[in-house]
Amino acid sequence: MNVLFVASECAPFVKTGGLADVIGSVPKALEQLDNTVKILIPAYPALKDWIKHGDLLLELEDLFGGPARVYSVRAKGLNLLLLEAAHLFDRKGTIYLDEEGYDWEDNAIRFGALSLIGAKIGLDGIGGWKPDVINAHDWQAGLVPVYLRQSGRKAPPVVMTIHNIAFQGLFDGALRGPLGLSSGLFTPDGFEYWGHIGYLKGGIAMADKITTVSPTYAEELLTPEFGMGLEGLLRSRQSDLTGILNGIDLDIWNPETDKALTKTFTAKTLKRKAANRTRVEEKFGLASNPDAPLFCVISRLTTQKGLDLLLKSIPTLIKRGARLAVLGTGDKKLEDDYRAMADRFPESVSVEIGYDEELSHMLQGGSDAILIPSRFEPCGLTQLYGLRYGTIPVVARTGGLADTVIDANSAALTASCATGIQFSPITIETLEKAINRTCDLFKEPKHWRVMMRRAMEQEVGWDHSAKLYKQLFSSLIEERAD
Ligand SMILES: Nc1ncnc2c1ncn2[C@@H]1O[C@H](COP(=O)(O)OP(=O)(O)O[C@H]2O[C@H](CO)[C@@H](O)[C@H](O)[C@H]2O)[C@@H](O)[C@H]1O
Questions:
Q1: Confidence at residue 25, expressed as pLDDT on a 0 to 100 scale
Q2: Which ipTM score applies to this complex?
Q3: Any idea which positions bind ADP-alpha-D-glucose (predicted)?
Q4: Domain locations in the chain?
């Protein structure tokens, strides 16, 4: 089966968050199942060099104000279709933000262009290759099914995947003209959202199937609390919505081979993990204390991730002799508040504001526990990396966090199946309790070691979920053929 992915980021080339990890890993698992997956992605500066190794397959004189080309290249085990359109993607700043940190003014056009080319490849194929199914990811690819629908032509089915409904891609309705969108579909049943163009909304309304990244989030999305205004539409499409849990790339995230670690380790050589802890303590300038856990956070610093709650719980953590190493970037106020906390308690709290892939591996390798107090979390990947590295996840019971961590309650401890700590409802008090429970458990090395081993044994790769994607794609293709 031929599958076209359309997405705005892909690890290890361009990454601002978990979307990139998924786009960079699930295609490899699908290829193992005898599928060909090609990923259409803009040729941002970080990807431009790959063009030299690519084949030119498509040339357009004008794509929303400038010329565009699509190159095909095999890079790091992935088939990329690089959309080169210098006027849209060859810029300094980040892939979504300008150098001052504001959204690029023309993001609607930039990702409208990505979606338009995705639809074109769906309709006409590229270089003799034709997708049997298209998987569009997040709002940046939300217009793919819209452009297909308005073409009126026979097109492959589309699966729209929601990685985070908080980002919907809402833009001025007047952009319909410049984007070449049909006014006939600009209705509440189509891609209109209260007078705006809703990229994700259009995608959800017009895709053949909708997936999200965990079963629990698929249920949560149907409620006003989590659906963020799209719960009604999603309820109307409930029978087409499934939650397929994310996996991780087991080669990139492997404590047995990870080059960012001081000492590599396995579930059988857990003692070797201690050297990594010492390295993190040194690197972050934290005091060492063998009697209390070293916690880490690797995250966007936002209220979604509950990091304002954690800030208030830090005194509890310090009281227990625990330490906290934070790696993150995001809301300026939270960045300042965390820096201030680190200045106040330099031996107990240390913060690295920035984005650093290698440091994130080092932290997973050297910390005892990872804190993820998210208010909502579609799936979450850092708890999966934590499980893989025996770094106990301490998580809010929501979305994919609820689906992937087994709480260390007394029954689970007795049955030796616990893999982490969960807390609910998501408040400062329950988070503090969870921190205290983690510190208590850490003082029982036998329980703690069993939990680490269980965590490391969890199936966190793509094997199972890639099969579910394949089944979903196959069923759609069969339906189309009937
Ligand atoms: N400062 C930093 N330095 C280095 N690495 C950093 C970092 N901050 C974050 N990261 C990395 O970025 C990724 C974050 O992925 P998550 O899945 O946890 O959340 P995100 O909200 O981005 O993704 C959304 O999409 C994914 C994918 O579907 C869902 O799992 C998730 O719930 C949803 O919110 C991880 O690989 C993490 O290690």
A1: 97
A2: 0.99
A3: 15
A4: 2-247+463-481, 270-457
Ligand 1 center to residue 148 CA distance, Å? 30
- DSSP-based three-state secondary structure for 443: coil
Residue among 137, 382, 460 whose CB has most ligand 1 atoms within 8 A, to mutate: 382
Among protein residues, the one with the nearest Cα to ligand 1's atom 30 is 380
The closest alpha carbon to 390, from 442, 321, 426, belongs to 442
Q: Does domain 270-457 have CATH number 3.40.50.10540?
A: no
Q: Which residues line ligand 1 (CB under 6 A)?
A: 17-19, 21-22, 163-164, 213, 246, 298-300, 327-329, 355-357, 360, 377-382, 400
Ligand 1 nearest-atom number relative to CA 360: 4
* Residues in CB range of 359: below 8 A, 6 or more apart: 260, 283, 327, 352
Q: What is the pLDDT of residue 211?
A: 98
Query: In the chain, how long is the greatest CA-to-CA distance?
Result: 67
| pLDDT band per the 50, 70, 90 thresholds, residue 93 | confident
Q: What is the pLDDT of residues 224-273, one digit of tens each?
A: 999 999 999 999 999 999 999 999 999 999 999 999 999 999 999 999 99
Which residue's CA is the closest to the ligand 1 atom numbered 8? 299
Domains 2-247+463-481 and 270-457 equal at CATH topology level: yes
Model's pTM, two decimal places? 0.97
- Residue 16 CA to ligand 1 center (angstroms) comes to 8
DSSP 168-235: --EEEGGGHHHHT--GGG-STTTTEETTEEEHHHHHHHHSSEEEES-HHHHHHTTSHHHHTT-HHHHH
CA dist 376 → 264, 303, 402, 463 (Å): 33, 10, 10, 25
What's the mean per-residue pLDDT of the chain?
97
Look at the block and give the residue holding tokens 């599928």.
35
Distance 2 CA to ligand 1 centre (A): 28
Ligand 1 centre to CA of 147 (Å) is: 29
Residue 347 has pLDDT above 80, yes or no: yes
- In CATH, the number for domain 2-247+463-481 is 3.40.50.2000
What was the pLDDT predicted at 481?
Answer: 81
Q: Which atom of ligand 1 is nearest to the CA of 21?
A: 36
**201 annotated ligand binder:** no
The pLDDT value given to residue 139: 98
Q: ω into residue 425 within 30 of 0, thus cis?
A: yes
Backbone angles phi, psi at 202, to 5 degrees: -60, -40
Residue among 190, 170, 171 at smallest CA distance from 182: 190
Taking a C-beta distance cutoff of 8 angstroms, is the pair 242, 397 a contact? no
